[in-house]
């Protein structure tokens, strides 16, 4: 493979310069981290699964008119995306109490919320991605009030889509995180869904059994993460069973 210019390396993905200006190649690693990278592991097949799942969700969003950075998948681990200017916020949507919200408010995990709640964390690993009020976001110039209104509208559309898709395969969408990017078409700025949408950034519970099918399996040592993600991919018809377990060339009749 020709050497490509590395643009950015994160905990789970690498961005390379794309083939055309305004594009990037997004590479999905097998690395898993939690609690601000205090806990780390390599999980065979995770990158392949998240590449496929993020493609599936981003394509679905585009089909219902939600703009995303996704252009096309290139191979098992890479996809071509539009280059965006990332807004330094983790946009979190919650349907049921879990994780940091359950802890902060002393709620039992799984308690239904009166309506979907959108919240923002400031993207800063050193600070542990602290929750920030809209006042901070506007005062510090990370986004304007108009941007925030647009981001909340986008996030709720993503929530409706994701919750519906998941419900169709017997999975409850407890919460998720998205990131939003700015793109310019001439002088006109638009906000689009960027980064990834995968079980790394969602809480997904089996509706019947409550089994966790997301990164909490890793965070809380609940079993095999790749098994959980494969279950999600298989239910969605995104990936045939055992597709990530192929380790050597096999004869295809
Ligand atoms: P939390 O309960 O830890 O605040 O997380 C809420 C949801 O957002 C959960 O699905 C995990 C996701 N999330 C990320 O993917 N990355 C992050 O940095 C944060 C803060 C949350
Ligand atoms: N904050 C996220 C988590 O708890 C991501 C990370 O810390 O790496 O999983």
UniProtKB/TrEMBL annotation:
EC number: 6.3.2.6
ATP-binding keyword on record: yes
Organism domain of life: Bacteria
CDD domains found in the cross-reference section: SAICAR_synt_PurC (cd01415)
Short name of one Pfam family: SAICAR_synt
Reaction(s) this enzyme catalyzes, per UniProt: 5-amino-1-(5-phospho-D-ribosyl)imidazole-4-carboxylate + L-aspartate + ATP = (2S)-2-[5-amino-1-(5-phospho-beta-D-ribosyl)imidazole-4-carboxamido]succinate + ADP + phosphate + 2 H(+)
PANTHER family: MULTIFUNCTIONAL PROTEIN ADE2 (PTHR43599), SI:DKEY-6E2.2 (PTHR43599:SF3)
Protein name, per record: Phosphoribosylaminoimidazole-succinocarboxamide synthase
Organism per entry: Octadecabacter dasysiphoniae
């Amino acid at each position: 493979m020709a050497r490509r210019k590395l643009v950015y390396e994160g905990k789970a993905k690498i961005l390379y310069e794309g083939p055309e200006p305004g594009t990037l190649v997004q590479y999905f690693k097998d690395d898993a981290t939690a609690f601000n990278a205090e806990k780390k592991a390599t999980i065979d097949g995770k990158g392949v699964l998240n590449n496929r799942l993020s493609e599936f969700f981003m394509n679905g969003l585009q089909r219902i008119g939600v703009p995303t950075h996704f252009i096309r998948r290139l191979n098992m681990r890479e996809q071509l995306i539009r280059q965006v200017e990332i807004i330094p916020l983790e946009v979190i949507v919650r349907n049921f109490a879990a994780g940091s919200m359950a802890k902060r408010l002393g709620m039992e995990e799984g308690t239904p919320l009166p309506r979907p709640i959108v919240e923002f964390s400031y993207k800063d690993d050193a600070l542990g991605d602290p929750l920030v009020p809209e006042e901070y976001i506007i005062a510090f110039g990370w986004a304007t009030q108009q941007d925030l209104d647009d981001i909340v509208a986008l996030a709720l559309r993503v929530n409706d889509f994701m919750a519906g898709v998941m419900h169709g395969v017997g999975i409850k969408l407890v919460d998720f995180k998205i990131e939003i990017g700015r793109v310019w078409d001439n002088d006109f700025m638009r906000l689009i869904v960027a980064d990834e949408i995968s079980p790394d950034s969602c809480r997904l519970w089996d509706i019947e059994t409550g089994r966790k099918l997301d990164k909490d399996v890793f965070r809380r040592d609940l079993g095999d993460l790749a098994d959980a993600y494969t279950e999600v991919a298989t239910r969605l018809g995104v990936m045939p069973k055992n597709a990530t377990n192929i380790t050597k060339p096999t004869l295809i009749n």
